[in-house]
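Record format v2
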Amino acid sequence: MESTHSIKIFTVVGARPNFMKAAPIIAAIQGYNERLALSPNLDRANDSNLRIRNLLVHTGQHYDQAMSEQFFADLSIPKPDVHLGVGSGSHAAQTAEIMKRFEDVLLRERPDLLVVVGDVNSTLACALVAAKISYGANGARPLIAHVEAGLRSFDRAMPEEINRILTDHIADLLFVTEETGLKNLREEGIPAEKIHFVGNTMIDSLLNFRAKAERSDILNRLRLRKPNPESGSTHDTARYALLTLHRPSNVDQPETFLNILEGMQELLSSCPVIFPVHPRTRKRLTEFGFQRFFTNEDGPREETLRSPRANGRVHLVEPLGYLDFLCLMAHAAVVVTDSGGIQEETTCLGVPCVTVRENTERPITVKVGTNVLAGTGKEGIRRAIRQQLASMVSGSVPEGWDGKSAQRILDVICRELEKKRCSGTVLAGQN
Ligand code: UD1
């Protein structure tokens, strides 16, 4: 007999770094349902063999084609079931708008469990709504699962730090990517039974899509592949560096932004620097009159690549999709960034990374990986770049970053929902 009910899960995404963290979870749920459908001996009346209905909710925090849709295409994520369409705004306005719109959807759909990933405003906003919602007189609400729990920069001036701490403290299931996350959560008094070390779903995506990313033509488009007269090959990749900057603390202050650009000068004299520029950063560099540091061509000119000296300017390009960026990162001589995720991706790829921040919530990338913290002073950045270019260290890949994190998460989710059901709590899908 066909089971008439299912488990209902909401998976929330909102901003660019969410998509690659959520994609493997969505795929794991699809895989689970397919296996269930194909199991010949399954007792379909048995409640532990429930199909999972996963509804994908996009808050619309990021909305440009390049910041959002391109990632859905690259990562084969299905179209969102619900789009809240909130767009940009101040932190308060954006968070409040997500909360208002998400509450209606939650009350209408009554999922059994909510998955939020990372540390963006969408993560906290949706978790907060779910923590306080009541489906009925008995006060039932969905379980809240936080993927990438426990990371701490210990810098509360970072909006993401506030989002991380608050989300962790209202979540029921905390999925941790690195050992420091376990320690941080323990020290903050989170009960051990809520915490699960599962590895890193962002790395699941990287390993899944690494081969496909190699087929990207981004290196040709940016003229970073040059003919090699000695080998006769036309596919030698130029030596280049990759830069990303978007943190308000780095790009909203002209002095800090200028320091970083001046810190890059040394690199610019030895190789081209490619800078896929975030919309916030683009606005600022125009506002601050920093155009002199940049070329607006798509990529370096041929003579730049042939010459041992670059042309002294950073090559600005539009924000890139997941596959193009992964390809560009994998072949870079060094990556300079203020992103959190890129510190992890370069560690997995064994590519030297210079993080232009005073702290990192991802210390494993410094301890075992290829990352160094440079701060945001000119000299520190120069030193770190020099050190990284000379370094032969390829680092190692942290424990559990093995491509299987999403499956581990789904196993825990199924177990916890089964426990909830056995304890007499009616699942929303059974109403
Ligand atoms: C957000 C996350 C940050 C993450 C980053 C990745 C928070 C607090 N911050 O920062 O953790 O690393 O995403 O990009 O959630 N904009 C566009 N088009 C878009 C999106 C944004 O033009 O599709 C512009 C808008 O002017 C907007 C600004 O970028 O005001 C900033 O966007 P916002 O989502 O507020 O924060 P991010 O800086 O992207």
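The chain has a mean pLDDT of 92.
The radius of gyration is 23 Å.
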